[in-house]
Amino acid sequence: MKPVSSMPVTGFEIAVVSDHALLRYLERRHGLDVEGLRAEICAACRDGVRYGAKAVLADGVKFIIAGDTVVTCLERKRAERKGKG
Predict the structure, then answer these.
(1) What is the pLDDT of residue 7?
(2) What's the pLDDT at 23?
């Protein structure tokens, strides 16, 4: 009789959690309204996208825009340059 083989060990120590997995977890487990938040960001950046802005300051944050896409959101404090107030 052959011994039952166990699952192979991968060598990985921890699981890497992708941004997509984290977003879906927040949405499905914690009830985060992702589409509602997307609509808020869209509304805040609409004029910036329309007029070709590279960034929009709104709601205390700085949204970075590439073409018609909001690509990231920075803390406003981090986004401001030293000495610029």
Answers:
(1) 85
(2) 97
pLDDT in tens, 3-26: 677 889 999 999 999 999 999 999
Residues of the domain holding 32? 19-79
| Angstrom distance (rounded) from CA 11 to CA 9 | 6
Strand 55-58 relative to strand 69-75: parallel, antiparallel, unpaired? unpaired
Residue 3 belongs to some domain of the structure = no
Is 2 a domain residue?
no
List the structure tokens of 44. Answer: 């805040």
- Residue 40 makes CB contacts below 8 A (sequence gap 6+) with 59
In angstroms, the CA 2 to CA 29 distance is 43
